[in-house]
Amino acid sequence: MRFTKMHGAGNDYIFVNCFQEPTPENPPELARQVSDRHFGVGSDGLILICPSEKADARMRIFNADGSEAEMCGNGVRCVAKYLYDHGIVRKPILLIETGRGILRLELQVSQARVERVRVNMGEPILLPNQIPTTLPGNPQHGGAVVEAELSVADHILRVTSVSMGNPHCVCFLNELSDQWVLGLGPKIEHHPCFPNRVNVEFVQVLSNKEVKVRVWERGSGETLACGTGACAVCVAGTLTGRTNRQILAHLPGGDLELDWSEKDNHVYLTGPAVEVFTGIWKGSEDWMLEEE
User: Is 18 among the catalytic positions?
Assistant: First the structure.
């Protein structure tokens, strides 16, 4: 099986072109094998680039633990780059089918290669039963889960929960540390208040236009970036009055630009997409890098 490793702001995935390659028989198990950073290729998960009857392509994403996710903002930018750079679809605007629905992506091209992509991530989902979470909605925010109390590991956190097609729990802190991210991240992910588990964003506000973020991703652990998570931070920052609707998010793997538009209530995500290498996977004990 031929594969390509790509990343968006350090959030790395193994991509399989199912326009040319057969769809893997067991994607969850393949995701677990290729994602292993010691015995596999090493990644935050597996993404299948598939034909679609509704759009230019369909994206399926599997986390490093094999669970299938609904959406990935960094991954979908890489899908767009792959489609354009490899000549599958040569258009400046692409439509990609995801678990969130069909997303519109605007490509920023230089010397016939995609460098950055702006994604219309759609409207944030704010009602508890749709996220889903059992945390109470705040009547002052139309029933959205804003600054709700979450008890975890002897801590009482004030959290804001948002879905961008996948669930997020945003925690604003004075300072980011491993104690929070690595200590509480997995506990919040599996907290009973989130029946489908949850992605967790730990946020330090630098100004009303700028934030620093670390993310504990559902099914993958801490990642260098999370596109949907950055979108959730933008929404949560706005709802809690901490930030403007347009912000720059600094993540360990790079910067992402966010805009929660007042015009259409959609969140727009802009960031890089990078191809790292292509290889051939022959099994968990036998894979090789392809020379360019």
Answer: no
